[in-house]
Amino acid sequence: MKKIGILVAIMIICFSCSKSSGTENEILTIEDLLVQNSEITGWSYSGVSWVASSISELTEYINGMAEIYQKHGFIEGAQRSYAGTIDGTSCAIQLIIYDMDTETNAEDMYNDPDLGLSSATVWTNGAGTECHYVRYGGLSQVMTFYSSTYFVYLYIDYDSDESLNILKQFALNVDGKIE
Q1: How many Cβ atoms from other residues are within 10 Å of residue 26's Cβ?
Q2: Are strands 121-122 and 89-99 parallel, antiparallel or unpaired?
Q3: Do the Cβ atoms of 61 and 27 come closer than 8 Å?
């Protein structure tokens, strides 16, 4: 009887170890990195979303810009749009995540002058390895960062301190999933 008790205890310990192997935190697809519906209070899916796993698919979605991503090692990308309200105004956020194959490629994409973000403000201690944003005079904002092999692009069609804070929430949310 004592041997059976020991055997059962060993089986329970082994079963417990295998359950905590970390598989529940593994990323299955690039879509897993996107902000989920209503994950950020007040923001839900809206409009078009896509996944591209080749440069020809990416060209269909971002015609004219795909070559820049190809130059920096594009593997796949995913985009989702969200709708919410800021200061009583309906707003839209576009989130695009690109797997650039290596961290060096992601950093090169982040620093590429063809993105038009050379005058961006650095968000120190923000999302990713490096993060910056541009505010377009009361009209819109763009935030980009890279983390691991991923380059992340966020756009909001509104410009206020509150909209910048919401972009930061989205960026930190995605970065937390990458890590």
Answers
A1: 8
A2: unpaired
A3: no
Residue of 40, 58, 71 lying closest to 167 (CA atoms): 40
| Element housing 11 (H / E) | helix 2-19
Provide the 8-state DSSP code for 149.
Answer: T
Task: Tell me the per-residue pLDDT of 139-152, one tens digit each, with 9 for 90 and over.
Answer: 999 999 999 999 99
CA nearest neighbour of 55 among 100, 102, 94, 110: 100
CB 142 within 8 A of CB 134: yes
> 27-178: which CATH architecture?
3-Layer(aba) Sandwich (3.40)
- Reported as a pLDDT band with limits 50, 70 and 90, residue 47 is confident
The label of the residue with tokens 């009583």 reads 88
The one-letter amino acid code at 165 reads N
Q: What is the pTM of this model?
A: 0.84
Output DSSP code: residue 102: S
Distance CA(63)–CA(45), nearest Å, equals 23
Provide the CA 175 distance to its chain's centre, in angstroms. Answer: 6
Query: How far does Cα 70 stand from its chain's mean position?
Result: 19
Find, among 145, 100, 109, the residue nearest to 127 by Cα: 145
Give the domain ranges of the chain.
27-178
